[in-house]
Amino acid sequence: MAYGNKVKLHYDIPIYIKEQLTIMAKRKGITATELLTRIIEEEYMRLKNEQK
Q1: CA–CA distance, 52 with 49 (Å, rounded to integer)
Q2: Looking at the DSSP assignment, which residues form a beta bridge with residue 7?
Q3: Which of 16, 17, 25, 37 gives 32 a disulfide partner, CB atoms 3.0 to 4.6 angstroms apart?
Q4: What are the sequence ranges of the domains in the chain?
């Protein structure tokens, strides 16, 4: 499902992970979705750089 330049993914996240994301996001002043997006982007870049 497309939302502008975003694609909505549906997957199950364990409750304890959701809680951890929420806690860390509150500390950073962002939403849990924004934090998860940043984590995924950073991991993608790390893996991409490892392949070089």
Answers
A1: 5
A2: 2
A3: 25
A4: 2-51
Q: What is d(CA 15, CA 26) in angstroms, rounded to the nearest whole number?
A: 17
Q: CA 14, 31, 13 angle in degrees (round to 5)?
A: 10
Render pLDDT for 2-45 as a digit per residue (tens, 0 to 9). Answer: 456 777 777 788 899 999 999 999 999 999 989 998 999 999 99
Three-state SS annotation for 1-52: CEECCEECCCCCCCHHHHHHHHHHHHHHCCCHHHHHHHHHHHHHHHHHHHHC
Cα 33 to Cα 18, 25, 37, 48, 49, distances in angstroms: 10, 9, 6, 22, 24
Q: Are 7 and 13 in contact (CB under 8 A)?
A: no
